[in-house]
């Protein structure tokens, strides 16, 4: 399994200038390649292949006075920027043709120097290295100080240097990790995700919703109000933009850290975990959009999925159309309706249900049933020979009258 390990970088002022130069060169190569392909399409010329595009926007461009400064950065950075462009085109074509499932992918767009996030990638061909002193050696940039929070499990295949909107620098290593199965446990859990409580487990335990964005709303409003009062294009406005970005970064970091801790605890304590396959993109278009985004369900379930695969646990998503809240977990009766304001209800069989706990129990039962079916359990009756009258193709009515058999 390939995983990413992120670490904070602390470049010197000179290294920041070198990184800014590399960000700019990678952006220019990306935009030049995109422009050439758009012009070729407008002129109804053949699609420019990846190899020809690399020769034109990198090799030949370095020999011109307008792009001679491309030689000041590592060639691998430029090649990787072009590889990103090629991957974006392939994803777009696959989405248009229907070979790529899911949400439609838009064609690649030009990159801007004002983008909140800037990134460059070094592969093994660039010969980046980790020095004996614990610094990250990058070609034509130097040895950058790194704050190591843990050791890498193996030699990284690539490293991406990222500068986020708040001005922080990170090194993202791609490493190959081996599975680390945990000792088997008896428990299994169904999880019902919500907004009142972030998660309700099938055993009745409820995890509160931290609401990081709502708790930081006052600080964010203050920073945004100060930004709106600054003159556009001024130095004070740039500083205010960074302050707003830092406030949002604190919220993002707190949410990610909390999700990591909760997902790790659930994976450690349960052999199998089942969650409902929620349509987050649809819920994001409702009046609850801010609360849905603040909850971070997709991030949380993604963590559960990859941690389950790494630590030998079972993870599954349950069909979103399962009436988990309306289905009685005791007798199987489905209620006619269940408005959101009803938090507890009584089934005609006499069972009294907490809405969320009942939904989590039904999710657990559905997940266990699907897991048994995957093991080969028969759901329907066995094969039955068809009656003789149904084993042939019947002639059409008008064919019977003429005595001609039509197959």
In short:
With 407 residues, this protein is an alpha+beta fold.
Explain the overall architecture.
The protein contains eleven helices and 14 strands. With 407 residues, it is an alpha+beta fold. Helices cover 41% and strands 17% of the residues.
What number is the mean pLDDT?
90
Q: How is the main sheet built?
A: 7 strands, antiparallel
Order of adjacent strands in the largest pleated sheet: 2-6-7-1-5-4-3
Q: Topology as H/E string?
A: EHHHEEEEEEEEEHHHEHHHEEEHH
Count of DSSP E strands? Answer: 14
Q: Would you identify the regions where 5 or more consecutive residues have pLDDT less than 50?
A: 376-407
Keywords:
407 residues, alpha+beta, 7-stranded antiparallel β-sheet, 5-stranded mixed β-sheet, 14 strands, 17% strand, disordered C terminus
Layout of helices and strands:
Blueprint: E1 2-10, H1 13-42, H2 50-59, H3 75-97, E2 118-123, E3 129-130, E4 136-138, E5 142-147, E6 158-163, E7 169-176, E8 188-193, E9 197-201, E10 206-208, H4 212-215, H5 217-228, H6 235-269, E11 272-276, H7 280-283, H8 289-295, H9 297-310, E12 314-318, E13 344-346, E14 352-354, H10 355-374, H11 397-402
Parallel strand pairs: 8-11, 11-12
Antiparallel strand pairs: 1-5, 1-7, 2-6, 3-4, 4-5, 6-7, 8-9, 9-10, 13-14
